[in-house]
Structures are given as structure tokens and as C-alpha cells.
Design a protein that fits this description.
77% of the residues lie in helices and 0% in strands. It has 275 residues and is mostly helical. α1 packs parallel to α3, α1 runs antiparallel to α4 and α3 runs antiparallel to α6. The longest helix is centred in the first third of the chain and has 43 residues.
């Protein structure tokens, strides 16, 4: 439930943040709310279509084996979430500035008002696609419907609430800190998903185990215990991981961490001009 809540919170918060920026930049413009709502509904409709086709693709791919199917979905979801973390780390600030410019251009009449709907639709669609893929991957890997639903509701409510609070300025929460914390949570989440995918690929005979069992912590913390389940979905805890699972986890964790340090660094204008 916690992993779902973290992902949903992050995605809904991004949507709320972008919508809030556009609403603030177009304050006083007639019918702005109508076009933003059209954009939200359009994005939701697109996400529903993605969910529909994801299920159809899953049914069509049943012949490839359940292990291969599960691994494929996990890797796709991990790639989407990992790329989003990297992209937002680098482009979050300039995206905010761009959205403000779009809003001001609409107010001045330089761009048509339906531009708001287009921007919001694309935003909701992108975030919705990630939500669909991650939720589906969690479901096929044993996630309970009740836990997924509760995590979805909690994460969605929390993300929307923080976005609304930021918009109205009731409290000042540095968005950079929110993105930093959720980014690192998602990095561990992605590493766990890749490790799980490696386990499925090993079972399918695609990858070697390298070492059958690196360690056994079942006597200390069982996977089926409450804490074990919590850590399993949060950081990919496995009581008896194979060598390939540990290797893939470490490579993913290190790779994303290094990528954030390199790709996520944007030189300041002062530094650029001084060179």
C-alpha cells in the first residue's frame, strides 16, 4: 500500500503543481477553470484508454509465460518511473518557468485559451500512464486489491491536498524538498522492481541465478510478515535473494544515483557565463 501511495502522491502532486501554476498565472482570465477542467478530463480519459489497452496487451501476451509477462511489466513501470525522476530532477525548475510563461501568454492573448486544456491534458496523460503501469505491475505481482485501493486513495488525496495548499499559500513547503524526498523513495522502489523482474527472469530461465541464495534472513524478518511486506514493496526486500537479484538491485540503485548527480545537475547562468 505504501509504495502505491508514494507513486500516486508524487504523480498527483506533479499534476496539482502544474495546474496550480497555470491557474495562478492566468488569474482573472474568464473561463480559465473550464478549460483546465477540460484538460483534466481529457487526460483522465486518455489514462483510462491506456489501462484498457494494457489489459488487452496482457491477455494477448499470455502465451509468452507468466514470468516473462510479469518481468516485462515490472521493467516498463520501473523505466517510466526512473526516467520521470531523472527528468524532473533536471527540468523541474525550467518547466515551472515555462508554464508561467504559457499562462501569461494566454492572458495577453498571444496564445489561445484552449492552450491551457492542451497542457493539462498532456500532463495528466503522462502522469496517468505511469500510474496505470505501476498499479498494474503491483497487481500482477501479488498486490491485494484493498491495499492498492487504499494506497491509491491516500496518495491521491495527499498529493492533491499538498498541491491545493501550495496554491492558496496556506503554508510554504519548499517543492524542492518534496521532490527530493519522493525521488529517493522512488529510486529504491525502482531498484526493488528491477530486482523482482530479475527474479521472474531467473524463474523463466532467461537469466542465471549466479548464486542461488546470497543470504537467508527469514528467521529475522519473514517476507509474509507485516514489516516484511512493507519493506518488500518499499525497497524490494527479499529474504532469500539470488545473486542476480542483488546485482541488479545494486546496479539500478547506483546507476540512478549517479545519473541524478550527472544528468540532474544544471549549471547556473552565473557559472556558464564565467566559463
Amino acid at each position: 500500500m505504501f509504495s502505491i501511495a508514494v507513486v500516486i502522491f508524487r504523480e498527483i502532486f506533479e499534476i496539482a503543481l502544474i495546474v496550480g501554476i497555470l491557474m495562478a498565472a492566468t488569474r482573472g482570465l474568464a473561463k480559465r477553470g473550464k478549460w483546465v477542467l477540460v484538460g483534466v478530463l481529457g487526460g483522465v480519459a486518455g489514462s483510462v484508454l491506456i489501462a484498457f489497452f494494457a489489459d488487452r496487451i496482457s491477455q494477448a501476451a499470455e502465451g509468452m509465460g507468466q514470468e516473462m509477462l510479469n518481468a516485462s511489466i515490472l521493467l516498463i513501470a520501473a523505466a517510466l518511473i526512473g526516467w520521470t525522476v531523472l527528468w524532473m530532477t533536471r527540468h523541474g525548475r525550467e518547466l515551472t518557468q515555462h508554464l508561467k510563461q504559457v499562462g501569461h501568454s494566454v492572458v495577453k492573448g498571444e496564445k489561445p485559451i484552449y492552450t491551457l486544456a492542451v497542457v493539462v491534458t498532456l500532463t495528466v496523460l503522462r502522469e496517468g500512464a505511469e500510474i496505470v503501469m505501476f498499479t498494474y505491475s503491483a497487481f500482477i505481482t501479488g498486490g491485494r486489491p484493498l491495499e492498492l485501493t487504499l494506497g491509491f486513495l491516500f496518495g491521491g488525496f495527499a498529493g492533491a491536498a499538498v498541491g491545493v495548499i501550495l496554491y492558496y499559500g496556506l503554508i510554504k513547503i519548499p517543492t524542492k524538498q518534496i521532490f527530493t524526498v519522493t525521488s529517493w523513495l522512488l529510486i529504491f522502489l525502482v531498484a526493488g522492481m528491477v530486482s523482482q523482474a530479475a527474479g521472474y527472469l531467473t524463474a523463466a530461465g532467461v537469466l542465471p541465478e549466479l548464486v542461488p541464495s546470497m543470504w537467508d534472513t527469514s528467521s529475522l524478518l519473514a517476507e509474509n510478515s507485516l514489516v516484511g511486506k512493507f519493506l518488500q514493496v518499499l525497497v524490494g526486500y527479499t529474504q532469500r535473494p539470488s545473486g542476480i537479484q542483488v546485482l541488479m538491485y545494486a546496479v539500478t540503485l547506483a546507476g540512478l544515483s549517479i545519473a541524478i548527480k550527472l544528468y540532474g545537475y544544471v549549471p547556473s547562468k552565473t557559472a556558464q557565463t564565467s566559463v
